[in-house]
Design goal:
With about 50 residues, this protein is an all-alpha fold. It has one domain (about 1-50). The chain has two helices and no strands. The longest helix is centred in the middle third of the chain and has 33 residues, at about 15-50. It starts with a helix and ends with a helix.
């Protein structure tokens, strides 16, 4: 599965018309992932503060 994604990403980046779109898509995916994981971490940490 990883190899398929790497192959598709490499093919998209090889064509200069797709480079900017691919970079934008990857940046957006990373931002969404960080936002979701950050929110999960903050909520989980808030629950643990009541525990000793």
């Amino acid at each position: 599965m990883v190899a398929v994604h790497l192959g598709l990403g490499g093919a998209a980046l090889a064509d200069t018309r797709w480079t900017a779109g691919t970079v934008g898509l990857v940046a957006a995916a990373v931002a969404v992932k960080l936002t979701l994981l950050g929110g999960f971490t903050v909520r989980r940490r808030g629950r643990r503060t009541g525990e000793s």
